[in-house]
Amino acid sequence: MYYYLIVALQGYCVYHCYTNRNAYYWFLLIIFLPILGSLIYLFYNVISKKDIDRVQDGLVTVINPSKKITDLEKKFKFADTFENQSALADAYLEAEMYDKAIDNYEACLSGTFQNDFYVSSKLQEAYYFSSRFDESIQCAETIKDKPKFEKSRAAFLYALALEKSGDTKLAQRYLEQFDAPYSRYLERLELAKFYIRNSKKNEATALLKEIVNESEGMSKVSFRENRLLLKKAQELLQTEL
User: C-alpha angle with apex 200: 195 to 203, nearest 5 degrees?
Assistant: First the structure.
C-alpha cells in the first residue's frame, strides 16, 4: 500500500508538471527523489499560503455554510454601519441570496454613500443574477461614466444585460472593449459566444483562433491560470464553428 501511495503521488506531480508546462528539472526531481522531490514540487507549485487559507475557509463553509452570514448579521445588528451592511450584502450575494443582497445594497446607497461605485456595481450584479435585467441596466447606467467602470466586471455584466434586453449593438461595443491580446480570457470567450449567438461566425472563429494561438506562447503561470478557458475556446472551435 505504501508503495502505491508513493507511485500515485509521483504520478500526480508528473501529470501536474506536464499539464502546467513547468521546467524540466522538476521531472528529474520527482523521478529520482520520489517522496522528497514530490513534496518539494507540491510545496512550490501546488500549495501556497493563499491555497491553505482558502481550504480552511472552505472547510468552515462546508461544515457550517451559514456561519459567515450569521456572524456578519450579528456584527451588523451590533453596529449598523455602511461597512458592516455592505459586507453582509456581499455575503448574501456570494451565497446567491440575491433578494437579501439587493435589500442591503439598496439600503447602503443613501446619504454620503449614495453614489458609492463599489456598492452600485454589486447591486447591479445582484440584479443581473436575479434576472432583473432592466434594473441591472439602470443601475449600471448610474456609474458607467465613472473611470472605474471601463473594462470592469460591472461593464461586462452591463453588456450581457444589454444583450438580454435586445440591445445587441451596444452590448457588442461593450464586450469588444475587453478584446486585448494575452488578457481577459473570460470576457473574450464570452465575446466569442456572443458572436456565435448572433450569427457572426467569422468574427467568432477569428477570435477563438487568436485565443488558442496565444496559449502556445504564454507563460506557464498564465497558462495554468487560464487553462480551463483555453480548453473551452478549443472546444468551441471544434463543435460550434
Answer: 80
- Name residues whose C-beta falls within 8 Å of residue 207's C-beta, 6 or more positions apart in sequence: 179, 188, 191, 192, 195
Residues 38, 55: Cα–Cα separation, whole Å: 21
Query: Boundaries of CATH 1.25.40.10 in the chain?
Result: 64-166
Q: For residues 183 and 181, give the distance between their C-alpha atoms in angstroms, rounded to a whole number.
A: 6
Res 65 pLDDT > 70: no
Q: Position 91: which residue type?
A: A
**pLDDT tens-digit readout, 217-237:** 888 888 888 989 999 999 999
Q: Which residues contact 226 (CB under 8 A, 6 or more apart)?
A: 185, 215, 218
**Grid cell for residue 120:** 452600485
Cα atoms in the Cβ-side hemisphere of radius 13 Å centred on 142: 17
Return the CATH number of the domain spanning residue range 64-166. Answer: 1.25.40.10
Nearest to 17 by CA among 7, 6, 29: 29
Q: Which pTM was predicted?
A: 0.74
Amino acid at 233: A
